[in-house]
Design goal:
It is built from 4 helices and no strands. It is mainly alpha-helical and 77 residues long. It has one domain. It is globular, with a radius of gyration of 15 Å.
Length: 77
Amino acid sequence: MQQVLTIKLPDSVQLSQFELSMMLAAKMYERGILSAGQAAEVVGLTKRAFIELLGKYGVSVFGYSSMEELESELAHG
């Protein structure tokens, strides 16, 4: 089953449906709500294409929000 969401935005917001879908899917992937495959499906992309675009939306495919977090993880195993 799929849910349909309607969002009303001011006319001054100049984003395509793809951009809005990608922003939402990327954030849901980042928070662990959707898997990469599910998020890609939301946007209508392959999993590989979705993963390749994540950086453009400020989301790390590795699940680290900062370099410090990654370095800490590497240091503590």
